[in-house]
Amino acid sequence: MARAAQKTSDSKASAKIPNAPTATKEELLAYYREMVLIRRFEERAGQLYGMGLIGGFCHLYIGQEAVAVGVQASVKQGHDKIITGYRDHGHMLAAGMDPKEVMAELTGRIGGSSKGKGGSMHMFDVPTGFYGGHGIVGAQVALGTGLAFAGKYRGDDSVAFVYFGDGAANQGQVYESFNMAQLWKLPAIYIIENNQYAMGTSIERSSSTTELYMRGSSFGIPGEQVDGMDVLAVKDAVERAVKRARAGEGPFILEVKTYRYRGHSMSDPAKYRTKEEVDEVKKTRDPIEHVKMLLDQAKASADEIKAIDDEIKSIVAEAVQFAQESPEPDPSELYTDVYVEAAQ
Amino acid sequence: MTDILMPALSPTMEEGTLTKWHVKAGDVVKAGDVIAEIETDKATMEVEAVDEGEIAEILVAEGSENVKVNAVIARLAGEDGGAAKASSPAPEPKAAETSVTQDGGAAASGSGDPEKKDVTAAAPAPKTELKDPEIPADAKLVKTTIRDALRDAMAEEMRRDEAVFLMGEEVAQYQGAYKVSRELLQEFGDRRVIDTPITEYGFAGVGVGAAMSGLKPIVEFMTFNFAMQAIDHIINSAAKTLYMSGGQIRAPIVFRGPNGAASRVAAQHSQDYSSWYANVPGLKVITPYDAADAKGLLKAAIRDPNPVVFLEHEMMYGLEFDVPEGDYVLPIGKAKVRREGIDVTVTAHSRMVGFALQAAEQLAGEGISVEVVDLRTLRPLDHETIVKSVKKTNRLVSAEEGWGPMGVGAEVVARVIEHAFDYLDAPPLRVHQEDVPLPYAANLEALSLPGTDKIIKAVRAVLA
Q1: Same domain, yes or no, for B398 and B438?
Q2: What is the DSSP string of A229-269?
Q3: B278: distance to nearest CA of chain A, Å?
Q4: How many A×B Cβ pairs under 8 Å?
Q5: Which tens digits make up the pLDDT trace of B106-123?
Q6: Which of A106, A173, A336 to mutate to test the interface with B (most CBs of B within 10 A)?
Q7: Residues A151-156: what's their mean pLDDT?
Q8: 0.90 cut: is pTM over it?
Q9: Which domain range does residue B54 map to?
Q10: B110/A329 Cα distance (integer angstroms)
Q11: Which chain A residues in 117-146 lie under 8 Å from chain B, judged by CB atoms?
């Protein structure tokens, strides 16, 4: 029944086209709030990294905020499952995790969501349905397919939202997973965040075909390409995919065209693209500016926007303070959580 | 006149049931005609005539059980007197066994299955074997193959817990590549007994994901050699996530299947992964020897909230042992003294335990008293039982099927040196596979694999 893959929503003009998805002012304010939270949080994380308070790898989500926030609009919190790769801070904040716990995990403190044992790439939160945070590129796709399998096994109509990037889209296990997901009609929504660079390799240099929404076509999985800089376009496409997944019609692939403003990680000078390219995106396609424009059309006041900006500023400041004040894990934590003690 | 022989239908088949003759004496057959059906513990297969001629006589009646491979089952009167033999999909050379040589340290024989003697000899428990302390005195014991003990363990746990399911290649409709999942599909249906595509990395990841969300998958690998494709999920996703999540995300999953050398399947199908998995914190690694342990430890593995690697042995599936009836669950992480002795301790796991017991039996005839410690679980390793034994015997030989360097024996020896150095009267010795990829040629395979003779030689050496 392989429905033809389709391409929708032109990059910049979606707010102007007649049947563009719409939202109420309240919804737009909520999306704006979440997106600003992610951006301000990531900016501070970058700062703390520069100060040596965050170690190891740190992959920032700046520029891609509309994706996680647009997807989250369809997530039934605590019922659905979310899983992603290593560029995960944005997904965690959108899922509803406490910014304090996320930031304290980045600084490797006991107050972090993994008690400081996981770090940037390995955070989890069962109450919000966030299943990581995985450091092996593409591994989350098979694991997420397993989360979808569990939903179907239980018959609970839950959906698994499985994020991965254009780089992971070339991993073999992604296709092993696609095959099983369609074979077993699993409720998995595969969200390919195509930010155009797999670390330093552009999609043109790494992929024989660059239309990633069609990558499921040999398995009969329908796909759609969406403008990932437009939160409403993402939300609209995800809603449709979720509807069919909950109805038992199986997986769906959404290729979300987005862009990361920063390097692959904090240690990446990003010399594989020009400053002009980055500036052009920031100037013309910024997802937060896009929501601001929609808010303007929806007659949100400057005060309403400023109130959100101020609230986020204090939330992030509080998170940074918590992440610096929370102590490092006690040495006794070294040997905890290796095994669950069996209650036999 | 040409003999029609009982064919070997798999690399490890030694005997089977001749279920049906499609021909009778006097019938004329041509090459390709189906003449009989043979059932092994794995499958029922048709036997075709290889040459044409008239069936002169049927020597083994239909319904006969335990017909040995290469036994003459019928005679064919060929028109030209040429050879007419039943076809054999996996012929196994069955020349008369030559005498066992000691100098190579290996049981080099002309047989296609050099360790066959050891296996059959090891099946009946040696008379001096200890009674398993975990088996209640009044328990009713039932003779069960390891294959069925594993199946029973899975079936019982699936009845007990709706969250337990089985997935893997050929586990459902085919009834298991080695028939370990026989009849599970019929009882539990295709929701809980799931045939996967041949996609080890993918379905291992799907299993771990399902486990993270609270189900209790049993993932069967057709062999652990294929699990190398999936080892990323076994280690990176299953073993490490509890720790990386600060205790939030569990992966209660069992990865099971045959491990180690089968017979004449060469290097890519013959590796022993014991030390690989036993190296990884976050995993439990179980290597049962007999059917009671296979059942009791698999049930424990399924109930365990941690990821467990459960290493079976293809050459052992068909062997029968006593298994206590009922809900028999063993503790993970306890070694077992299989035979008491005073002169030397031999540690072994999985199939090597049988060889160690046989070595002990032979050495007893020479007045050497060997204590055999079955490790049973490699992680966590019960070094207390090993150390206690060495403190008594003062000598140690470790035996494992895998390669020696960085192996299980290396770990056992290190633990003994750390905890009982002053009790050792001789340097410990390790018995293991030769340090080469396992060869196909029967004689080279026999030279490479460790068995009873290598253990005997090592025991004599530590006593010298």
Answers
A1: yes
A2: T-HHHHHHHHHHHHHHHHTT---EEEEEE---SS-SSTT--
A3: 14
A4: 152
A5: 333 333 343 333 433 343
A6: A173
A7: 97
A8: no
A9: 2-77
A10: 62
A11: 117-118, 122-126, 131-136, 139, 141-146
